[in-house]
Amino acid sequence: MRPIGGPGNFIVPTVENPGCAACHDTIDPMAAGFQNWAANNRFLPFKSAAGKAIALPTSYTSSSYPKNAAGMAFYMEGDAWFRDEKAPGYANSPMPGGVTGNNTALQWLGQQVAADPRFALGAVQFWYEALFGRAPLRAPLDSTGASGASQLAAYNAQQLEFDSIASSFAAGGYKVKDLLTGLVLSQWFRASAATGMTASRAQDLADVGSYNLLLPTQLNLKLGGLVGQSWTEFAAPYAGLALTYGAFDGNTRTTRAKDYTMMQALTIDRLVATRSCTIAKADFDKLAADRLLFPGVTLANTPATAPDAIAGNVRYLHKWLWKQDLPATDPEVQRTVKLFTDVWSDRASASTTSVACVYNDTNDANYTGRAWAAVLAYMLGDPQFLYE
Length: 388
Prior knowledge:
With 388 residues, the protein is mainly α. The protein has helices at residues 13-16, 18-31, 58-61, 105-115, 118-132, 145-171, 176-185, 187-190, 199-204, 216-226, 240-246, 262-284, 307-322, 331-345, 368-380, 383-386, and strands at 46-47, 53-54, 89-90, 93-94. Strands 1-2 form a two-stranded antiparallel sheet. Helix 6 runs antiparallel to helix 7, helix 13 crosses helix 14 (331-345) and helix 14 crosses helix 15 (368-380). The longest helix is centred in the middle third of the chain and has 27 residues, at 145-171.
């Protein structure tokens, strides 16, 4: 909200006070496009004293409504819009009928908006947020310093690409399919990694790439395809743990979660802790050729007997679940191998406390099933899997 400042006594601040008018000069004339609908969305529900159909509230047409500078009522018989606002119109074009009314005011407004050269760019920005799950970049308030300069560079680069897509969108007859194609082919969608990054360059590219927290329904679809089973807690996307994770029910929660907060972390921690063993066992129970997760190992393969097979399957999981095609010597792969080895090595001193795992000493004598379940808990609960 723009702060209201400056001295002066104003009868109509939104029109007379420059601090207010800076915004109202633009929005008030366009608001008149909705002059034929009342606050309850009814079309011209009221009658004036002379019987004219209007949508003006009775509070405005009442004799008790504040008067203008001359001490006269703002409302005049025959009006369809407020006289204590800027005159109806769009930019520099006055609306036909003015305050006395126009039954096609909204259609006229729509035509003016569509004819505005900025319409195509607005469409690009609208669909960018719908496709990428985040708002377009804003120009920094302070472009001094390394951070501000990087933010300004990123903003300018994005605007150049948006302008190009908008031009093609307009020239092609405003076909949304073409606009979406332009966004998908843009560097903001396709870029996923960069080499030789410096801290400054990382700031420049902070918003490049399509990388968003998956909704519960999307995450379940990903689990079904890559793991072989979804989380039943996410089957109803607007209730229970799915509501906690997605923060959206279309009623009281109308803004979908885009950030990984404590609530998302607690939800995922619970799911991976209680489901990883089940997922691991379901995959190992299949023939090796049919497995989604463990095609290169058996439950008999331990760090003592088959370290290469374990490292190979870890590399496979990194590519399958995280889209990382890495060599066995990569630190990420080595970290995952170490997790498997550490869990397996701790088997003798593992707590006897009952845990929610379908594996036990009877069906997992080598403790490898439980070690692989720990790896799955780590990988399925990581942002590399939860984001796309």
